[in-house]
Amino acid sequence: RLQEQLMEKKLITILGPTASGKTALAVSLAQKLAGEIISADSRQVYRDMTIGTGKDLDDYIVNGQPIPHHLIDICDAGTKYNLFQFQHDFRTAYNDICRRNVQPILCGGTGLYIEAVLKGYNLHEVPRNEKLRLELKDKTLEQLTEILINLKRRTQSTLHNKTDLDSCQRAIRAIEIETFNLRTPASKRTFLPIQSLIFGIKIDRNMRRQRITQRLKERLDNGLIEEVRSLLNRGISAEALIYYGLEYKYITEHIIGKSTLDQTFRALETAIHQFAKRQMTWFRGMERRGFKINWLDAEMPNHEKTQTIISMIEEPK
Q1: What is the pTM of this model?
Q2: What is the distance between the alpha carbons of residues 26 and 36, in angstroms, rounded to a whole number?
Q3: Measuring CA to CA, which residue among 73, 77, 80, 42 is closest to residue 235?
Q4: Which pLDDT value is given to residue 128?
Q5: Residue 153 host element (H or E)
Q6: 136-160 b/e with 16+ CB inside 10 Å = b?
Q7: Which residue, among 253, 280, 278, has the nearest Cα to 264 in the 3D structure?
Q8: What angle do CA 273, 74, 227 make, to 5 degrees?
Q9: Tens digit of pLDDT for each residue in 96-150?
Q10: Measured distance CA(47)–CA(282) in Å, rounded
């Protein structure tokens, strides 16, 4: 009975690379359908990490009315949220929205999170392996990446977020997970897959690069460095912030004196461009793994993209 109830509103998924306009589209759609948004962003879960994660919380207000959203600002900066937690938090929010017969909209750029909940993977909560961490602590990122690739071949796993592989800490954690999976075969799925109408925002490479560069300049002008410094001043370690990657990694390294502001900007700009490219690689991989993604041109006006989605929802089956 519950499953029948949860199927009354088919999940709509909005995905795309960074700076493609996902949030604005999801909010427009939610406003038209009286829906609620579930965020699929691996860093927007952290409180007080707002500018660097691009939460754009003002976007969730339309004509003075807030658009309900979930899985944003749900845990403290300095902690480590993971896929296992996301899957369970997503299910809680999704089931609640569906029980109220409201339209759920999943929106984000973390392809691993999106794929895991749509396919219904049953994941283990992987404990720390201190012995393994000690063995890996002096290895380079290149060496760790090679170890991870070899492990993934043995486990036949696609469940690793390549978009976040930008620090030794993250690589070691990924190796820890794959080592656990190798020794502990996954049990059968307990979550059913979720059928979803998926829309992706396709953005021209040059436009994407322009948007990323402009947005990075705006974030620096709007207090990104001050945001990271305030987190450090609260006692969150530089190591913990570097773990989050991208803005928090590079700005922290600048604050602690490892790079000038100009060096930081150029390195971070390059890293975000690479990140967006890897996001698109993941989404194309989802298509090869059987997901149908309906691509919408980023240059199409938002109201037209919204109406296109609504028209597809209303098409007779």
Answers
A1: 0.81
A2: 9
A3: 77
A4: 85
A5: helix 141-155
A6: beebeeeebbebbeebbeebebbbb
A7: 253
A8: 55
A9: 999 999 999 999 999 999 999 999 876 666 788 999 999 998 999 889 888 988 8
A10: 27
